[in-house]
Known about the structure:
By secondary structure, the chain is α/β, with parallel strands linked by helices. The chain has helices at residues 3-7, 44-54, 72-82, 123-140, 216-235, 243-254, 289-292; strands spanning 36-37, 57-64, 88-95, 110-116, 148-152, 156-158, 170-173, 211-215, 259-261, 267-268, 282-284.
Amino acid sequence: WKIGDLTMNYGVKYAQPSTQQGRTDVNSVTNWNAPLVWEGTFDPVVIDAIYKKMDPRIAVVVFAVGKYTRFLEAFLQTGEKYFMVGFRVTYYIFTDHKEEVPNIDLGEGRKISLLDIPSATRWQDVVLGRMKWASIAIDKQIRNEADYLFMMDVDSVFYSRFGAESLSRLTGVLHRLFYKVDRDQFTYERRNLSRAFIPFGEGDYYYTAAVWGGYLEDMYKMVKYCYMQSEEDAKNNIEAVWQEESHLNKYFLYNKPTKVLSPEYLWSDYDQVPADIKVVRISQLVKNYAEVRPN
Ligand code: UD2
């Protein structure tokens, strides 16, 4: 700690924060008092200045297995335009087709790290396998190279700023299809044979597994948890209804995230954008499942 750290933000100009005005059409705080982030609830200039002081190293873990390498170009290109611009970012790309990883011009302080993984015959093994391969890679490599880690689906494109306002100890993103529905309609795992089981009558939100993040060690714990729970399920010949997403939802229910992001942080090109989504920051692409998946 140095006195200099206090003075770094002097001269940064931004609108005065108000105690009276802000978003009134949505709730911007959870019932455990964590921020629920929407456009209009933060000033990017202020947020960036806060996190720039730390200059964190941010890891993005994406999987591009089989035909999914075709999504890398748009993901990386738009990521360079909108994801954590001005911050140090490493994209960890897990793939079985290194030769298909495109050459993209990256901004200063930004890199790509390629990791080999085997091909899969079932798409379920790819999505669940993410928890296994990410656990191993964090242990061996990423732990020494990053302060924050995001797990993301590769079949997505950034359309707008996705910045430091998303950083937190553990950050979950509300699934766009469930952010206004009763908890009993959440597609949690309802079979009590699975380790992902959540009974009716419980639940805060339904979170997507396509974007989530946090401090490296907190993410490691959570990724490993999802891996271990799915291994237990496999021993019992059961696979959770939404694979790692089911385990993730259970973890978040009993270990509350310290920040929750609105569905701005993962919308979908399949769906119209309602009035409360003022900006789509990243969106899942329309894809032909039958064509891109292994079977
Ligand atoms: C949903 C979730 C996803 C995961 C999955 C589990 C959304 C937007 N996404 O995605 O996070 O929970 O359901 O059922 O809600 N992948 C490959 N090769 C493959 C298959 C998958 O690389 O052959 C990777 C790739 O990074 C992809 C991700 O796994 O983005 C998720 O797979 P998906 O896009 O096929 O799954 P989807 O869209 O049903």
